[in-house]
Design goal:
about 1450 residues, mainly alpha, two-stranded parallel sheet, two-stranded antiparallel sheet, 70 helices, about 60% helix
Amino acid sequence: MAGTGGRTWRDLLAGRDRKRKITFGSEAEVREAVLRLLDHHQNLNDLLLEVEGSVKPAGNAPSESLVASVLQEQASRLGVPPAILAAKTATTNIERICRASASHSQGPLLSLDQRRKLLCLLQAIKDLLANNLFCRSRFCQELWRMKDPPVLEAVWHLHRGSIVGLGELLESSSAVPAVVEWLCSSLRGLCERAEDVELTGHVELARHLLSDLAIVFLQNGFQQNWELGRKLESKKIPSICHAVLQRMLTWVLDAVGKEKQEDVSTLKAMKFWLNVFRVPVYQSAVHPDSLQQFFRHTLTKVLTYNPLLKVPDAIRMQKEWSFTRTCSLLTTLYRRLFVVLGAKEAICQLQQVLETHEVNWQHILSCVSTLLVCQAEAEQLFKDLLGQLLLKAFENYDMENLITAFLIARQAALEGPAVFMPYSEWFKTSFGNAGGHHGSSKKALVFLFEFLSELVPFETAPYLKVHIMYPPVVPAKHRSLLLEYITLAKTRLADLKVAIEDMGLYEDLSSTDESVQPQGQALRDVEKALQIFETTRKIPTSVIEASIFRRPYYTSWFLPALLQPRVLPKTPDARLAFIEALKRADKIPSNLYSTYTQACHALKEKTQDEAKAKTDHSKEPIEQLEAELAELRALVVDQAKHKDVPAQIAVISDRLRSVLGHSSDENEAATSNSPIQIDISAPRLEPSHQPVVDLLLTSFCQNLIAASHSNPPDRQGPCLSLLVKMMCGHRNLLPALLGRLCQLIYHQGPSLNDAHILGLAAFVIHLSESRALIPAVKASFGISQPAPEQGLSILEYWNCLLACRTQESFVFCMRFCTAAVSYLMCKFSSSSHEELRALLPPGLVKKLQYLVPRLCLEARGILCQEAQSDPIWSSLSCPSLNYRRASLSLWKQTQFQELLKEKAFQLSFREWLLWEVEVFPEKDILSASERHDFHYWAIYQWYLPAPSASGGCDGDLEAACGIIVNAILDSLQRLDLGSCGQSKMWVNPDMLCRLQELVLELGCRRRFLAGCRDSQRHFLFKILQERLNNRKPGSALGEELWRQQELLLHRRLLVGLPASSLIMTCQKGRKTVLDCEDFFHFVNSELKQACSRGYALSYDITAHFFRGLLNASLDCEEPAVVVSNVLTTCQSRCPVLLFSAVLWWPRLEPVICSQWKRLFGAPLAEELERLREQHSSATSFLSSGAVFSPSGPPWISAAFLHCTVHQQSPHRREKGVLERLGTGTEELLLSLLFFSLMDLISAKIAPKEGVGFQTALEWSLEVLQCLENRGVSWPLLFHPAERDLGKYQILRSAASERHSRLLPLAFYCLTPGFHHELLTREQSFLYTALDLYIQLLRLFVEGKDLPQPDQMGQSPEPIEHGDPLEVLSTARRFLLGAIPRCHAQSFRSIQPLLATCEELDAELAATLRHVSRPAATELDEELVLF
């Protein structure tokens, strides 16, 4: 209302108040004065806009507001009800306000001035409502009669101010389509203005407006049954709400198919609308059932929207509908729907829609992808759904269910192995066995193959390859059905210009990438074949088969990929060795090989000019990956955004796939289980993969640290688990990932800081959590220790990396294991004991059991304490606490101590020993005394009394000794100590001391057992024998090398133990005697097989035995007699010990004499004295020409003479010295020949030990000449032991098995000394010569025992003496020349050998048969020529 001069009513009142002070006597006088003024200058519209509150007079008497008074006065004058007049006036004002908004093109929102005026009007209306002077129904009618619909914000203010609810307003409308159109256009305008609203800082206004409207739509559009009975009269509102929601959903879905064509602002507007699907919008305003009904309805509408695409379109295009390729609008909508519905409800709704509606296959399949990526439990639910669909399909022969199953399985497989099994695996699981649904009847088979055949025209090549390479299992009688389909599929592949013959050897049939050409696949096949060859050193079977059965692919693709020119390395690598192996096997054509070598030489010449000319093509994808990982970090630190993490990880997976490319190994059943090769000593990473792995590890650690600043691990959500699981799904990333972890943990661990250790420890925990996706690992330690035949699990792999040998590695391992176990216990604190046990890597817990008591004295026997509030995590995150205190904090936890009671987590005595023997004393974190104390605590207080069920010894000293012996030997067999400068034969001195103590204690307890052989076997030799006998069989060469190494270790261990432990002391009657039977047996059966001299042990074990013999005799009443008895027994039971004593007597004699003098101070025992005399006699005979007078067994005297001869310089030895031997020395000479032959063999197989070959040969021929001169029958020496009458049994029993097998070689080296008279004098000579020739042939055929030319090349002797083929040729020539000269009686004895000879040498056998005939004598002269 304006006064004079255009001033407002408020201005007038204020001005008059300033001009003069008027006082009225009463309230009535004031009212009367105001009404008179308004009557002359009234404008009700302006009054409603200007009066913000009730202007009430002073005083306590009740009265009406000024606006109400004016309204009543004017209504009375006009003759209309005041409420009707108020409604019309308010509508006029709203129209004026909204008209101004339309003129300013502000759409559904008001300007600040308009909003102020509207709020003033609303306040006035509220006053009128309070006085019953406003008609809502008439007001609603008047609003719809406005020329233009009201602005949406104005309607919202009416609704929010409880003046007129939106539902009431909609109910009063008469034109429903117009109302729907007005609401939809207003909502679209609101969403489009959202971006500008953000700029003005009023984003909350737009969100509240949209939220309130969404609540109204749901409350009225999705009513529950109990609400419907109350609102039956309101049928118009639900239809409007439904229509608006549907129109807005259509607006969004229309843009899904053309997301790239829409501008950014439009897409933002649509995303703003999707806020209506956020659950917090509704809070408690909407009943949960209504909300679920709305979300189910929306999901149905999405899945059935615009169903134009047919099944063939879906088959062809579904690769483009994976999660990362789906429109972000659609995936956002799905994810918000799944928050309410959950995976199970969503899949049920999906199944119902598929059964009852025509569907949009793009939306169906993108929904499947989103569910799998964002809902962890969806994988198993979809597996169940696929099983149900297949069951229904084959029960009712329903093609729709079958195609649905195939499409869903393929779509799920597109998301990678971390999400769902590959398609090839699903197809094999479903149809690759006779028990599948298709195997129930012929009708089922026909149904399946009809379906597959109908798919063929639309199929892409990868799926056809899966069906061909892994066809359904069919009975033989119905195989024609399968063959028809395969023919059809191959025809389709030919149309696609993909030849089945060009399929790779290790092709990834789970991948749907069609861009891989044969040449690319061939490169992958070459890499895989090289991996297999490098492991087995054999040409892979698949390559051999391809060279025969798939010749076109092999010659056209595989060989060109393998023979790509390159600069050949100086040292042949695996690739070059593989090529050479194929060349030797005639698998590479000569011309192709020649071209390859020429190209390599040409390339070598140009290398200097073209070095480092590479271009980094992956820079841009890596930058994209880095950007997505940064986006993930923003989600991880905000707990409210954790729901968005699965989608972001799917995007990261897609970027990672772009960087890495597709792997030939990725999830293919034939290759996914192939072990990952890791060289622990020097892990190799692909140059292109290392920056990717470093980026992923850095991102993981940064995410962990950032999230831990605000939340402990148990409140950080599944973000990190999902990230690691995604990495495991990229099969071609795993070798680089595990190799990089090896570099960081095994090689660089001690140099890492706390943040790095914590991050890597958490990463290891999550990697172990996803262990089902990780193949076995073949971890080797370089040349010194080959990889085990069976791969390691990822949990066992950590044990290889966490080696504790030095001070730095001890500290690192303790920090790492403490961080890993603490993180796991905090991360999964709400998990049950069983779940925690399944997640926890046992190796880490065992490592802590080893480390914590070792480094923390307080932990030895400590009792657990009750856990306080999150003490483990606080001890890790507090920088003031050192690693020992953090480890003790974990160790004291009740939960951790409970885990230690589980058998899987208990550290056994053997495991403790294997770790302890690896420690280098000089680099240990403990001092010598501290280590001594720790060993005594661990052995005597912990493991010795502990029950065997928990890894202890049950108090059994013998069991404890056995465990220590096995642990020491196992560690020496497997431990790679080369990197630390230690010898392979190095034995941990501390553990050896502990074993010595236990053996001595055990010996004291067993010293006076009743009886001798009635007691049990010597425990030590029993342990060693069991190790040799319980070895699992392997390759012959590998077993022989292992056995030789094992025996060397046995000898080294025995020498390290107390000497008296080799011999048992027992009672025989009233006397104490020595029992050496177990030692004799071990020497005869095992130790002598490892001696290079063939008839004598090494000095160390020989001297150790004699020291032990003298020490043990102290317990006997007559030491000299006992020692002599033992040595006498040696002559028949273990002659090799006496031969060893003879060989080493110059070194052994002073040791024995000195010890005897110290112990007894009496003359030497009789047998020891005899050995001294025999050595003295042999020395005198050779040096001064004295008479040699043998005493005792002739072979001992011969051994002394033989050894003394070779201990002198060859040029000082007198020629013909043997002629000075007197008569009756024939047996001595035969023994000399035996020892000389042993040296001759030793010179061939161990040229660096003993005498040289030429020296041994000359001495052997000299001995042989002496025997020939005396007419001694020496060939019997070469007869097999079983044919002897015992004359040479002792000599033969002293020789090692290998030396015995090589006697034929020595025999034919003596051919220059064979006289012609020998052929007629010795009737058994031909038999002996032929038998030894057959043995020599067998050795040559088997390839065993014979010295190799390269081995003999180490000797300075001529090559012809070491070439087995030359010796064989010499033997054959000798026999062919000797046969005609042999006595006729000689041929009778060779008849049993002819059949064998004919198999090995038919020509020689024919000669023998021919000469043995009486009529063949005229051909003798001719045969001699051969």
